[in-house]
Amino acid sequence: GASGNALFFKGSTTSSASFACPALGSRTVSFWFRRGAGSGELTYDAGNTYPYLISDLSSLRINFSNKDGEGFKSYIFAQNGQQSVKYFAQSSTPAFWRETWMHFAMTLDVTSEEVVKEGVKVSHVAYKAYVNGMCVASPSTDFIVTNLAVSGTTWLGNFSRNYTRPIYGAIDDFRIWDTALDAGQVAAEYERTHAEKGDPLVGRWSFDSTSNNGSGSLVLKDVVGQVGDITCGAGIIVTNAGVEGNAIYCNGYKTCY
């Protein structure tokens, strides 16, 4: 997982998990997710155009879609389960790449509420969405949502009603708060996992530490020291015009490797 063990969903109709969720108004939900390739289809996993990661977390549903020709990117939807066409977020840029652990968080902040008739409460909700600790959506206009806070069963990895929209992938460090965290707190959640797990690098070559072997070939030092150094062909030279410090330049010839 991203920070130890993770919960894996294999993309079948029986692949789901559930828990009892209380009625929530303002809230934050955060988790790490690694989406798998599923059946191998480029556009949709096993034919599912809208697989569900979370269903009915006190009305909140989060599911994915894709666009043709961009099979390894996942676009995220978030909606109010009481109003099936009421979307909190519908991203225009990819929220998740397949086979990569990424952190997602969403905050719902109820700014005001009113009861319009018996049994019907209307909430004005400000929401923000974050990917890897960075805010990617923060609309200036509140959403108006009917009956946001409802208790019930929350489902992970599938759609609650008929189990026809399973996800293929793994989720880790799933957390819920009954308040809307601020941007700094969300960023801290993202960083916390890195701090707990430690540096996962097995190799790093900054190109700032170099030498020559006995044959005169350029050697790029592994600064982590677990994998080993890189020996370069004659077409590789070091330049100081890198993003940060040195970079390597390839001259486009056969010896450039």
Number of helices: 1
| Largest sheet properties | 7 strands, antiparallel
Helix/strand order, N-terminal first: EEEEEEEEEEEEEEHEEEEE
Q: What integer is the average pLDDT?
A: 77
- Please state the overall shape, judged from the principal axes of the Cα atoms: elongated
Distance between the termini: 34 Å
Give the uncertain stretches in residue-range form.
Answer: 39-47, 67-72
How much strand? 35-45%
Number of strands: 19
Note down, in words, how this protein is organized.
The longest helix is centred in the C-terminal third of the chain and has 15 residues, at 183-197. The two termini are 34 Å apart. The strands form 4 sheets. Strands 1, 3, 9, 10, 11, 12 and 14 form a 7-stranded antiparallel β-sheet that branches. Strands 2, 4, 5, 6, 7, 8 and 13 form a 7-stranded antiparallel β-sheet that branches. With 257 residues, this protein is mainly beta. Mean pLDDT is 77; it is low at 39-47 and 67-72. A hairpin with a 7-residue loop joins strand 5 and strand 6 (73-80). It is built from 1 helix and 19 strands.
Short structural description:
Helices cover 6% and strands 43% of the residues. The protein has 257 residues and is mainly beta. Strands 1, 3, 9, 10, 11, 12 and 14 form a seven-stranded antiparallel beta sheet that branches. Strands 2, 4, 5, 6, 7, 8 and 13 form a seven-stranded antiparallel beta sheet that branches.
Annotation keywords:
257 residues, mainly beta, seven-stranded antiparallel sheet, 19 strands
Topology:
Elements: E1 7-10, E2 17-21, E3 27-35, E4 52-57, E5 60-65, E6 73-80, E7 87-90, E8 96-97, E9 102-117, E10 120-131, E11 134-137, E12 143-146, E13 152-156, E14 168-177, H1 183-197, E15 210-212, E16 218-220, E17 230-231, E18 236-239, E19 247-250
Antiparallel strand pairs: 1-14, 2-13, 3-9, 3-14, 4-5, 4-13, 5-6, 6-7, 6-8, 9-10, 10-11, 10-12, 15-16, 16-17, 18-19
